[in-house]
Structures are given as C-alpha cells and as structure tokens.
Amino acid sequence: MRTNVVLDDNLVAEAFKYSDNIKTKKDLIEIALREFVKNRKMKNLQDLKGKIKFADGYDYKKMRAGE
User: Fold this and answer.
1) Is the dihedral of CA 18, 22, 26, 30 positive or negative?
2) N or C: which end of the chain has fewer CB within 10 A?
3) DSSP 21
4) Is 20 helix (H, G, I), strand (E, B) or coil?
5) Model pTM greater than 0.90?
6) Continuous segment of H or E residues that includes residue 56
7) Is the pLDDT of residue 16 over 80?
8) Is the dihedral of CA 57, 62, 64, 67 positive or negative?
9) Where are the chain's structural domains?
C-alpha cells in the first residue's frame, strides 16, 4: 500500500541508531509496525492473566514433553 507521511526527522534518526543494518525508511517503518503489532498482541494476552481457568488435571509440562 502506498502512503505518504511526514515523519519527525529526529525520531527517524534515533530509530536508525537502534536498528540493525536497516538502510531505508520503508524498512524501518515496516519493522516498527511489526513490533507495534507484536507488542499489542502481547498486551492483549497479559489482559487475560487470572481470567483463564484450566481443567482439573491439566499438565502443561506433560504436553511439552509430548507425552
């Protein structure tokens, strides 16, 4: 999707300082958007803390071992 935006030059420069081998603003913005979405998804999962009731006898360790 093609979009034109005006970015804060100082913020872009700072973001490039923290980036690993990112060369273009397009790549920088794509990574920033991916990280934004990832962080929001994690936040939504954290909102579930204490709201999920597991079935009696549920053994997550046994499931990890593939037993």
Assistant:
1) negative
2) N
3) S
4) coil
5) no
6) none
7) yes
8) negative
9) 21-49
